[in-house]
Specification:
By secondary structure, the protein is mostly helical. The protein has one domain: Hydantoin permease (Orthogonal Bundle). It is 67% helix and 0% strand. It contains 21 helices and no strands. It is globular and about 65 Å long. The two termini are 31 Å apart. The relative contact order is 0.19.
């Protein structure tokens, strides 16, 4: 039986009056935002993206660059280079105001109605759940440490309580949704920046700016460290394909450059600053245990405040991730209201966090996930950005909700094979070229562990999508019209 056409009004939340006010639960799901409900300006995107990236995880990643043996100057250069990938995150954000819907719906134009369900199921909520677990793990490590300082007994039960409390606060932000995020995140950005800048000042007071590794890396080992470092830094911006979700309420005529640059700058600036601080910290502190190392240079009164800010940063970061993951769950056809979808994703992420904290070492979990996940997120981001270029950012939000066989995004058998093959082959190539502490692809292994997942996956997928769109006769201009 053929699928029935679906319009924006058929989304699970669409029978409720559109509400996007701070302090009220957002009523819209993946349905299109009408022009008369659009509001805000691109400038608000800076603070939305800054709050998640004034981050403890950035400190950990920066320290890792030094711990793997890179000279300080090279580590700092990689920090800037890897964070330039935030420009891709900003660039795809422009599809939000153009379509009035979420990135997980816009990608139906890339993969087709049925193909999109498979891709979004993997990248939109499974990988989102992994990132929820990663960030909750970081906050939980800090929170669990604070309970020890308060004299509470060390036990798995207490650890589980800490994790669940942090997860609960995060999901509350995701449930209230877009307008609450827009109102709340500027205040969080200011608070987090003040505290993290104080910590940065203390770290800089101990940093060894002339530091160099005792045994400098040479030859292939040096190239391997450089490639691994770039992968670690770039993995964060390459994971945020949800930027259209946070921009979709902006007026349709919002400047494309403004949307892209305010989004990118909001993430780029704090990421560069605090990843740099993490690298400098590792020149004099034992950052194999990041929390203990940072606390060693803080006065006693600052430690609990810093831990609270680590938790708040996680709430900001995961609040955004859980929000978009709930929308992604709706876009693959799960007939749940947005709030219920958020809770499902949150439950999966919480379970993963409990497993990671109670079973695995935190730093090992961070490095392994960040090094491996780019084999999927890099190609997906590259194909999305290429589609925006090919379509000149012309997306018809109503047509994107037409799931019928006669709809413009049914393509052949419900799949746009240009997008599906470009992403699949790009991910396969990246997998062959990836390297981590736990696994290396055959190409990487033959090159003594050189990690080429990002250049191969990103550039290869973009080129394949561009070529296959023409070779298969699925040029985007034939399937869309300007709204």
């Amino acid at each position: 039986m053929p699928p029935t056409p679906a319009s924006p009004a058929s989304a699970p939340d669409a029978d409720r009056t559109g509400v996007d006010r701070a302090g009220q639960v957002e009523s819209r799901g993946i349905d299109c935002v009408p022009d008369d409900e659009r509001h805000g300006s691109p400038r608000e995107l800076f603070m939305i993206w800054a709050a998640p990236n004034v981050s403890y995880l950035s400190l950990v990643v920066g320290a890792t660059l030094v711990l793997i043996g890179l000279p300080l100057g090279e580590a700092l250069a990689l920090i800037v280079l890897g964070n330039l990938f935030w420009l891709l995150t900003g660039f795809i954000a422009i599809s939000g105001p153009a379509s009035g819907t979420t990135g997980s719906v816009v990608s139906r134009a890339i993969y087709g109605v049925l193909g999109n369900k498979v891709v979004v199921a993997l990248t939109g909520w499974l990988i989102s759940a992994l990132y929820l677990a990663l960030n909750w793990s970081a906050a939980s490590v800090a929170g669990i440490g604070l309970t020890g300082r308060l004299g509470l007994p060390d036990s798995p039960a207490l650890d589980a309580v800490v994790i669940c409390l942090i997860a609960g606060a995060t999901l509350l932000v995701a449930i209230y949704g877009h307008a609450t995020i827009v109102r709340l995140y500027p205040a969080l950005t200011v608070l987090l920046t003040v505290v993290f800048v104080i910590v940065a000042g203390l770290v800089l007071g101990h940093a060894d700016f002339s530091w160099s590794p005792a045994e400098p890396l040479t030859g292939t080992a040096h190239l391997v460290a450089l490639a691994s470092g770039l992968t670690l830094v770039a993995s964060a911006p390459l994971s945020y394909a949800n930027s259209p979700d946070l921009a979709r309420y902006l007026p349709r005529d919002s400047g494309r450059a403004a949307v892209a640059l305010w989004t990118a700058a909001g993430a780029f600036v704090p990421s560069v600053v605090f990843t740099t601080v993490g690298a400098l910290a590792a020149t004099s502190l034992d950052m194999s245990d990041p929390q203990a190392a940072l606390e060693s240079v803080m006065p006693g009164w600052l430690v609990p405040l810093f831990v609270v800010c680590v938790v708040l940063n996680t709430v900001a970061n995961n609040g955004m991730t859980a929000y978009s993951a709930g929308l992604s769950l709706q876009s693959i056809g799960v007939r749940l209201p947005r709030v219920a979808a958020v809770l499902v994703v949150g439950a999966i992420g919480t379970a993963m966090t409990l497993f990671a904290i109670l079973v695995f070492d935190f730093l090992t979990a961070v490095n392994t996930l960040l090094e491996l996940v780019v084999v999927v997120t890099g190609p997906c981001m590259a194909v999305y950005a290429t589609d925006v270029v090919l379509r000149r950012n012309r997306y018809d939000g109503a047509a994107l909700h037409d799931l019928s066989r006669t709809g413009p995004y049914w393509y052949r058998g419900g799949v746009n094979w240009a997008g599906a093959l470009a992403t699949l082959l790009g991910a396969l190539a990246a997998t062959l070229c990836v390297s981590s502490t736990s696994w290396a692809g055959p190409v990487s292994a033959a090159l003594d562990g050189l990690n080429l997942a990002i250049p191969v996956g990103v550039l290869g997928s973009a080129a394949l999508y561009w070529g296959l769109s023409r070779a298969l006769g699925t040029l985007p201009a034939r399937a869309t019209r300007a709204s």
